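Quick one: structure for this chain?
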Amino acid sequence: MPLHALSEYTASMQSRVCTFALIGLLCVASLVAQQAPPREPHELLAALNRIQIDPAATYKIDPSARIELRRGDGRLMFDEGYLAFFQPLEGKVTGAVFSGRGHILAAPRDPVEKQQLAHFLGAPVVDQNFATAYLRFTDATAAELLREFQAANIEPGTNSTLADVWQAAVLSRNPAHSLRILSESFSQSPQPYFAASLNGSSVGAFDFVYDQAREEPQLFGQARKSEGFDFYDIWSSYRFPETAAARSAFRAIQYQIETNLHADNSISGVTTIRLHADRSGERLIPFQFSSLLTVETVTLAGQALFSFPDETTAAAERAASASDFLYVLLPRALQAGDEIELTLRYHGNVIRNDGNGVLFVGARESWYPHFGDTASFAMYDLTFYWPRKLRLVATGSKVDEREDGDLRIAHWRTDRPSSVSGFNLGEYASASLPGKAYSIDVYANRQLEQALLNRIRRPEAEMEANLTDAMPHPLGIPAERMRLAMSDPRPADALKQIARDIDSSIRFYETYSGPFPVHQLSVSQIPGTFGQGWPGLLYISTYSFLPAEAQQLAGLSSSGQEHFHDLVPFHEVAHQWWGNVVGWSSYRDQWIDEGLASYLSLLFVDNQKSPEHKLRVWLDRFRKRLVEKDSTEYAPAEIGSMQLGSRLNSSRTPDGFDLLVYGKGAWVFHMLRELLREPGAKNPDTRFIALLHTLQSKYAYRALSTENLQRELEAVMTPAMAIEGGNSMEWFFADWVRGTGIPHYRIEYSTRRSEKGFVIKGKLMQSGVGNSFVAPVPIYSSAGGYLGRVIAGGPETNFRFVSAREPGKLLIDPQLTLLCVAER
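Got it. Here's what it folds into:
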């Protein structure tokens, strides 16, 4: 933009108190890299929150003009209306608003992202009209728009009405962007930021973000409500193949945490974090930290540092600041290789009382400040002070425990690096199972949480009066067992059996995953219907501690009872290896640890000499869940790629992650195990076990990506697995990991007798997946066993087999080696 045009623009903005240098208006990143802001961070943040439209910087766009912005794959077009810039702050324009008629167009190149756009929008592109736009930026957006206006001969004017109409909306939206904009002032290598909130004519309000500080710079998404819950549906999020992922600037080496748990269940804590700078030039450090906790001070070598939010931050500001995060500003930028120690003091309440002495640590992932990266491994040193009447368990190995008046004091320390730390507490009973290499301690409450107890007692009151030995309970429970169930089941009654079962699963898993990685495992009861497996500490649902009769009274179906009895505890045990030793690289790789933990738990329960063949039962159950639509319009297998991870949970599929990843992930590892099997060998699973051992040793306390897994699989694959030639398993990952849908197969064939036997010719029909989907489909004869496999590709694949005996009926994969729906 010529300097004289800038001067005319500046002169027209009569309310401004500072004159812009050309570099100051048009190149924000260059300015902030050269000079520190003169105001304190708190003042700048408050000013960014309050910033408003400049009425004198309004541009009227008519249909003959062509005003547009390109960011990443997105193209924003402002066809007709008014665009007004924000007032400048410290010589920089950081936003604009638009009212009128506009259009946005974007088409991602990634097939997974195209599928997600189609899932939410009905088409693999963003192609939307919009009536309003709220824009925030630290890049050259202001300069680009000014050049566009100059080329179209559009002069600035004053429009106070537009500013008035937008005032409330601008003030409410500003805080969500202020900290990100402020961060550019404190980086020696600022990353351009652009965000647009658009009011779509057909889809309502949605967001377009192009932020090069994100690992995946481009994002389209929308906030939605579903059945009273808030969701943020991510339509697409990705980085471009030619760009490198943004690296974290900092990582933790050690956490030293002292926590006081008070009689009212509130906590106060001090965390000292030893940090290492992996990248030069950064000052702002993000931590995961519960919004239920308030930071009192953050210090570096005794010097108080700026943090946000802190105890002076208003509740409304906290709510707008992306919740469970804390930002700390260093006094100077670090250089790569520098190490420092930060000390943070805080207080609040992250513990809930669920009644009858059952406590619940709600913020298990964020009760202390830490880096949220699942592959950020560090050492932990924990000290807890808590009321003497309670018992407390924590991650790591307990070093000591003592009493001091009304308090208990104990110290835990990790033996190996860990990506997370946690604790649980209650009025516990316990049972221990010592061993040579490790010990197991199981803790449970003596009573049920009140909500669950109410569910169990409800049918009790209705039926107790008429209950006789001659009149069985309507749920099918014999009268005597019903009376026992009615006597308020105690989770603590299951302690010894759970300890034995956990020990059995560890011994079983060691064959597949190597030696148990912790010396002390604490297993603790937790209210709710979920579990978590953290280093040396398992959170196991109350349901897993209950007998079948109590589970049934609580409303669990027979498959639900099996889920909490057969799978939940042992899935979490498997995470001691898969998740706590081998981490995942990003949300796109979490399926590996969850799928493998799910599959190993199936193998374990099948190994318990159960006549029900639990592996087949659960695989078939998972398959049916993946293809059945139930009450939604989507079958879980159609939601999206497993690599979408947490993005699978959306307003359309609130439980998408659980429905897809646990079941399909288990099936993926089952199929790999079957492909690697060596029938007739002393141990047919030798290759599969070798693969898992390689992953455990090579990626211990590191991140494992899907690409890493494919490369390690290709190192041990058999020639028969290369169904598309070469030494590649790309077909498998394209179909089952990145792809969606489950193939449906049916078969047409004819048989004739020949000199060589019975010649079988036919066609295998494949549907439910794209034409590029390929899979090795085993075909059996009802009379003569295995005939061979057909490499299915496209809607129809011809085949020919020769059988020594009359084949009878042909069967598609009766051994359940392939995730498919086969016509029987």
